[in-house]
Amino acid sequence: FLSQEQAAPAWFLSLAFLGTLYAAAFSFRFLAYLALCLRRPKDLRRRYGAWAVVTGPTSGIGRSVALELASRGLNLVLVDLNAANLKEISHTVRSRHAVQTKTVVFDLSLVSTAQGDEALRRLREAVAGLDVGVLVNNAGVAKPGAVYLHEADVEACVRLMRVNLWALTEVTAAVLPGMVERGRGAVVNMGSASSEAIPSFPLYTMYAATKRYVAQFSRSLYVEYRSKGIDVQCQSPFFLAIDLRVPLIKWIPMENWRILILTFHTRWLFDCMIAIHRIFFP
Ligand SMILES: NC(=O)c1ccc[n+]([C@@H]2O[C@H](COP(=O)([O-])OP(=O)(O)OC[C@H]3O[C@@H](n4cnc5c(N)ncnc54)[C@H](OP(=O)(O)O)[C@@H]3O)[C@@H](O)[C@H]2O)c1
């Protein structure tokens, strides 16, 4: 056997060596990933700070994130455009968890207008002096939905770009100085699989493009701020159950679920049907 192995050509041995190295590296990465999944959740309050800022916390993913952070003992600054919805989520959070909340009414689609500047000033005031450790840039819009670019409503497009990328940038810039000062913090940006996991997302071109910005913004920001103790993460979900108050799924006690159930939202389903129809019957 030994003499046979010694007779193996050098190219074969080199390839076998490289293969073994690759398999070992892959196994190590896989085990490290498993260990990451199985470890105990971080104490966010101790690691990052006592407060979290969440944009778009009144429905969908943002609502779940806000409730989850509150369940981990973080006080919340809730940012949304609708005062009544903000009051409702703020009350819900405080009735379930022993945390404090602050609300900031901010229509993110008005960023960089006089009204937007005023709202941003209120946000800066709200976070001033607070130990804000976590920022979740969740608010995002997909309207105008599935349309050809030349047919899209211009105002809806402008709103989409303002909310999905401009406001996200401004809000991050408003919260970061405190984190830098304290030398710790985490920024979680809500991207989308539409820009990360699939090569293109026709008819949602602008939406996917704004989410690509979010991903690249997060990557670069991570490198920029990691030496200052700030973690930056971009979440890229596929389709998720979003409006948790949709009557069709109201019977499912979803709000307390830690894992959002993968499903199609009726609005997305409707948009997808339009998209398919328009591709085949232009
Ligand atoms: N659901 C999905 O399938 C999916 C997939 C990939 C990525 N995402 C991303 O995940 C994030 C959350 O999505 P979602 O599905 O949970 O959305 P959603 O249910 O529509 O909730 C969006 C939240 O953002 C708020 N918001 C919308 N426009 C705003 C504005 N101009 N100013 C301030 N707040 C505003 C909404 O407030 P009101 O309720 O008061 O209007 C709501 O609280 C978004 O960034 C989205 O792009 C979602």
Automatic annotation (TrEMBL):
Annotated transmembrane regions: 12-38
Tree of life domain: Eukaryota
GO molecular function: ketoreductase activity
Cellular component aspect of the GO annotation: endoplasmic reticulum
Pfam families: adh_short
InterPro entries reported in the protein's UniProt record: NAD(P)-bd_dom_sf, SDR_fam, VLCFA-Steroid_DH
Keywords of the record: Membrane, NADP, Oxidoreductase, Transmembrane, Transmembrane helix
Family that this chain belongs to: Belongs to the short-chain dehydrogenases/reductases (SDR) family.
Entry protein name: B-keto acyl reductase
